[in-house]
Amino acid sequence: MRMIPAWLEGWLLRLIGVPAAQSRLVDVCRTALEGRAPVSVLDLGCGSGVYAGLLPFERYTGVDRSRQCIESARSHCRHSGASFQCADVSAFLADDKGPYDLVLMVGLLHHLDDSTGRAVLEASARLLTQGGVAVSVDPVLLPRQRPMARLMALLDRGNHVRTREGYGALVPDALRIHEQRVSGSELRVPQDLLLMVMRRAW
Ligand SMILES: C[S@@+](CC[C@H](N)C(=O)[O-])C[C@H]1O[C@@H](n2cnc3c(N)ncnc32)[C@H](O)[C@@H]1O
Q1: What CA–CA distance (Å, rounded) separates 131 from 110?
Q2: 158 lines ligand 1 (CB under 6 A)
Q3: Strand spans (E) along 55-151
Q4: Distances, alpha carbon 13 to alpha carbons 8, 51, 53, in Å
């Protein structure tokens, strides 16, 4: 059940700059893919599937364990190449064969414990096409952090908000970190986010 009406949620998201941050992330993905549009996209922890409306693709698969999110995604997305599955990401990855040009994990890794996070990245590496990229964004704990940003990270619903090194330690040998960057100005709220762009190591 919705706690607030859709129009108010949309207005609040615009107020804090979420749509602008989402389109910047789409640009990051395009740049990482060296300008070419991804043919196939896997969005792990897709929520209500907002990136299915922002990214170009021929095939998009969104996975989320929240039934409410998946129902919302299905009702909003009209693209014939998009599909949404209500599943735990680990269960989904155990069966899926890919391949994907882009594996997106926006706000996912900080919900996963270390062994699950590592296994999810390992499986993502296996599913990437040659030249494909995996991109993650998560709240991060920093050594010297604005008190409000630290509080935001600690109050996050994800139980595994990590340091930059902690997220880096999840990356398996099968992937190499192409870019790892902290930004404290993505949103108009005090929040520090870590972006990781990963490529197949071989
Ligand atoms: C912070 S939200 C981000 C949603 C979306 N990626 C976005 O940017 O709008 C994190 C999402 O990950 C999903 N999630 C967390 N752990 C998961 C798991 N183990 N399997 C599947 N989905 C998961 C949650 O249900 C939630 O929708």
Answers
A1: 26
A2: no
A3: 59-64, 82-86, 100-106, 128-141
A4: 9, 15, 16
- The domains located in the chain, with CATH, are 6-200 (3.40.50.150)
Ligand 1 contacts CB of residue 64 (under 6 A): yes
- C-beta of 49 in contact with ligand 1 (< 6 A): no
What average pLDDT does the segment 69-95 reach?
A: 96
Question: Sign of the CA dihedral 141, 143, 146, 147?
Answer: positive
| Percent of the chain surpassing pLDDT 70 | 99
DSSP state of 52: G
Q: Which amino acid is at 75?
A: S
Q: Please write the tens of the pLDDT for every residue from 141-192.
A: 999 999 999 998 999 899 999 999 999 999 999 999 999 999 887 777 888 9
From the list 199, 61, 56, 57, the residue with the least C-alpha distance to 134 is 199
Does pLDDT of 11 surpass 90? Answer: no
In tens, the pLDDT along 103-132 reads: 999 999 999 999 999 999 999 999 999 999
| Tokens (6 digits) for 64 | 């989320």
Could you tell me the distance, in angstroms and rounded to a whole number, from the CA of residue 105 to the centre of ligand 1? 8
Q: Which two tokens stand for residue 82?
A: 């998009």
What is the residue-wise DSSP string for 125-178? HHHEEEEEEEEEEEEEE-SS--HHHHHHHHHSS-S--EEHHHHHTT--TTEEEE
